[in-house]
Specification:
homotetramer; mainly alpha; 2 domains; disordered N terminus; DNA-binding; coiled coil (chains A, B, C, D); GapR-like_DNA-bd (chains A, B, C, D)
DNA sequence: CCGAAACGGTCATAAC
DNA sequence: GTTATGACCGTTTCGG
């Protein structure tokens, strides 16, 4: 079902990559790993903030609910915007 | 944005929150939302990088596999390092 | 790291299952597959309904938007309920 | 793509929707929501079955693997069947 | 066909 | 520790 060049096996047939391609690939890997590292750090900082709030006596469950509610409000507004666009498009305004 | 009687404020017994507490709470919400915004932006940048790689003809599935394997290798190496430290400590080398 | 009984290898060591366990397992598999079959059938029926609407000249994009909006409204109401419960609990009403 | 005056497009320009179209639209929404409700219920029942299996000591990860493998086998058999039919037809046996 | 968006599954984390 | 909740990833599907 799979042959040697199967994309799920990135090790296969490395000779098919030119030097330039290999260099480009290395750069992509580096960029991705940098971004992922930063994302992981942000996740850790978020945990710290919640921990700090908890240590000061705030109810993290309620705090998370506030964050969730505000995010959902933003989503609702975006959804309303989409519906408006859809409607305008339907009546030929776009 | 929220006052003490605001029913949308789920934090316990609003009247029990001092002005200082309310201000602190607002700061926590702001910090959390800032961090989450940055995290979302990083996620979008990651999508863009993968998109750029794809547009240059790279197989993103393979690329993701590479990233995954390298992360796992890093974990494995960290784990091996921990085991080594543990053993060294056990034999009094640390 | 993995031994023969490792849970990630469900084929390993079948002799570890008693007859009763094996029978119970077969029943679970049967129940799950029945439910998944029904779920797949519902998905197909949904596709048919959208197709029928489209064939009658309805804009499926708008139709999907309506469905999504109504679902989100329901979610919003559920979320508001949760916030109310959280608030009531906070002020000691529960 | 859509002409605002196109009477055959029930979505465009809501005022252009006849009573019959509106009623039809309501029926589509109702049918879709019913099907989605049933689909959600099946998903919940599946969760319950896995939970019950887990409570009886079965490894749900292994159980899921069994389900996945059996589904794949079914797909493979169906595919083989299709190939066989194709070949039989090609040699005039059907 | 491609790109985007919905879906389901899996995993990590948090509440109980 | 166990269930419940949410994030993430991969897959599929739909519209262009």
């Amino acid at each position: 079902m799979y042959d040697a060049d199967d994309a799920t096996n990135p090790v296969a047939a490395p000779q098919a990559l030119t030097s330039a391609s290999k260099e480009k690939l290395r750069q992509f890997v580096a960029r991705i790993e940098t971004l992922e590292t930063e994302k992981t750090e942000l996740a850790e900082q978020l945990k710290e903030v919640y921990g700090e709030a908890k240590s000061l006596g705030f109810d993290t469950k309620a705090l998370r609910a506030v964050i969730r509610l505000r995010k959902q409000d933003a989503n609702d507004r975006a959804e309303a915007e989409m519906m408006l666009d859809l409607y305008l498009e339907a009546v030929g305004e776009i």
